[in-house]
Amino acid sequence: MLLVLGSLPEATAIGGELPRFLVVHGLGEDHPVHRGAERFREMLAGVARVGTAARWDDVEAVRALLAGQVDAAVVSPVALRDVVRAVMLLDLIGLWRDRGHWERAMDGEPGRQLAAMAERTPQTGGNSIRILGYWGGTRRHLLTRRQGVPTVEALAALRLGIPINPIRSKMWRAIGVRPVLLPSGDAPAALRDGTVEGVEEEAEAILRDRLFEAAPHLTETGHAIATRLLVVAAPAWNRFTRAQQANLTAATRDATTLARSLEAQREAEALAALRDRSGVTLHEFTARDALMARTRPARTRYADELGIPGLVAPIEKLATP
């Protein structure tokens, strides 16, 4: 569904001046998201004067978006929890078999359904937001102090440090884990002093924060996949003509392809660096089907709470090509 596009035709500017369009995100300028935002800007040369800004707090970015201070933002689902609650489903444990499953769902009917929900959900002043694209794709894994955890049974009674997230805590408990809620930045100390036996994290963060120094075993569980949503405020979208909106959509496809491919490359490089240069032992996770099955009841209940009971089954059907 995602196409690599050539240059876009110039759109006629209203009054001879190209419309401004500011895209913000919370990551660094070396992150794939920023590279994707820059590609978006390049693709819209002659269509809009696009600016990009890094290192915004996700929640502040959403507030600025709704206040009309910025036009678009790339944010996590949790940052949109008070705007479009349904996207919180994307963060759940055991929802995705692998990255291919995630891409098929985001580019297919489930992604379109979520986008339609966002457009139908009015915000302050009667406006709404539009989901232009689903970026991300980086998997979360388990890093442990003493040994790998290749099966669900190996997770039993594991004291696992996790970000403060009540629904994820419930899901970990459903498979026998003893979750310990850790504020941001507390994982290194908790691993060193034995408060937790392991943490869940992305490979790049494990490498960057040197978490492997206290926990040298990484099991490639891929139990969750980070989704970053490129969203635009309805008033900003409506400033453009239909031709310009088509250009924005096409630029999004190209930028999405780039951002996703760079995230996959970044994860592969981090895993290789952990294995080859940091003394980390990588373990295969052999119980993905069991993980998905054990966490399904909690996912189904949460989907009911979010008002999207019919979305889980279409996602699960896309687990295999």
Average pLDDT: 92
Give the distance, in angstroms, between the N- and C-terminal Cα atoms.
Answer: 14 Å
Query: Which spans of ≥5 residues are poorly predicted at pLDDT below 50?
Result: 1-15
The CATH class designation of the largest domain is: Alpha Beta
Q: Let me know the largest β-sheet.
A: 9 strands, mixed
Number of domains: 2
- What's the total number of strands? 9
- SSE-based structural type: alpha/beta
Total number of helices? 11
Percent of residues in helices: 40-55%
* Shape assignment: globular
Round the Cα radius of gyration to an integer and report it: 20 Å
Tell me about this structure.
- This protein is an alpha/beta fold.
- The chain folds into two domains: 16-137 and 226-267, 3-Layer(aba) Sandwich (D-Maltodextrin-Binding Protein, domain 2); 140-224 and 269-313, Bacterial extracellular solute-binding protein, family 7 (D-Maltodextrin-Binding Protein, domain 2, 3-Layer(aba) Sandwich), CATH 3.40.190.
- Helix content is 40%, strand content 20%.
- The protein is built from eleven helices and nine strands.
- Strands 1, 2, 3, 4, 5, 6, 7, 8 and 9 form a nine-stranded mixed sheet that branches.
- Helix 5 links the parallel strand 5 (159-162) and strand 6.
- Helix 5 packs across helix 10.
- The longest helix is centred in the C-terminal third of the chain and has 36 residues, at 242-277.
- It is globular, with a radius of gyration of 20 Å.
- Residues 1-15 have low confidence and may be disordered.
